[in-house]
Amino acid sequence: MSQPGWYQDPAGGPSLRWWDGGQWTARQCAAPEAWPGVPGAVAQDPAPGEGVLAAAGPVEPAVLFSPELHSDLFRHQQEITVPPATFQQSPPAAAPMPNRRKFLWIAGIGVAGLAAVGGVAAVALTRDSTHGGNAASTPPTGAPVPNGPAPTWTQALDNHFNNGDRSGGLGVMGGVLVRWDNAMAQAFDTKTGAPRWTGRPDLPAGYSGFSWIGLNDSLLIGATQDAETNSSLVFAIGSDGKQQFSHDVGRNAHGMGFTQVFDFDGINVLLGTRNEIVAIEVSSGKQLWRRALTAYNRASAVIGGQRCYLQDYTATLCLDMTTGNQLWATPNTCTANGASSIVSVADVLAIAGERLVVLDTVTGTQRQTVLQASTSIRGVGVAADLLIVGEETETASGDNDYTAWGINPRDGSKVWATPIQRLMATSLTTSADLVLVPTQAESGATVRLGIVVLDGKTGTIAWAESGSAINVSAGGIADWLACATPDAVYAASSTTVCAYPRHP
Known about the structure:
The protein is mainly beta.
């Protein structure tokens, strides 16, 4: 079976066309030999979206999307010695050679930098031989990174968000896209970008101040405290901007308010203070159970059916979702730094700390994976029913290499591994079938922010975009946030939010 990739367009002409493994698609891009240099590439595809941004009024120049990321990727490709790619008139019978180009990357939501180990090439060869990896699971050498599509719409964010803070997030609920942090939520129509509402709840007498603490596909959840009793009030608004509920859930042992939503399955919500986790039935506000945490701000949790999986400091616990009773516990699954992310897929639970630990959800026993030996994991997510893992490694020359891995959750084997040509400062973001990597590249006193989009099933880089150069000394620089739906990819800088078609 032929492998997906870029090949000479069978209709003729200088362009390459994407073969998805079964048929030719409508996606095209210029062949590398048509790129005599950066000016040629830029002239061929001028910065997408400038007209849209201009029509929207004054916008911070840092958010203008340009193809300069692609010239930078092209420059890096020239700097690193790799065999030239061979493009054919039809899909090849043999898989292309794996691409070992050097990549630097970042992703927009998640974890702090971790220690790096080992060289990518040597470690990858060992993993491939012991876990069934093959050349077909790595994108072909020399495949160009297509320019991203022009934004379908662009809107300016409230100046409140232009402060260098990346707390909160970006997400879709119903028909609106919401950029939120603890103090403000701003919603836009997903199809047109028209502003819909700015979220501020109606608080009863005695309550002052509030924080938005989490968003899922139907609710934006917030919390506040009574100034005298320290009793906590949990509330939520829907996609229409109207308040859906408010529940007084009492006071915790130390009088601390809620600071985050661990998970919400549409029926129950897991809320966290700095020292407790509390399970609440959303429809009634009934508290199901609460549990003290071992250390401040060192917990993550996810709901899996009738169970709650809790990463409490260095141990992983399985709790009954209705009663909070402990079903099993596995110690030493994480260092004292805590977990950056925890996800459940198939019958496994994956915890990303400095190491990737995968546990059987029924027994809590550990399973082996292709990344068993790595101590430089940069977050975990789920896309296309695979575990998606970011990894950083240090080469013999002292440089850092970054790779996104697609791992079969059932046997821990490598499905694909894609080097990314940008610095990964935080964790990757996943949707149902995409991997989103907000990117950053520093050059002297300037930095460029952007996004790289990968196919979750194959690991192929679908497209990339970047903004204009920002002077680092100006301050207020924050990585782009990103999310995706079956119809679009959304990205937000400090000043602007945009919607893109999924394919260039």
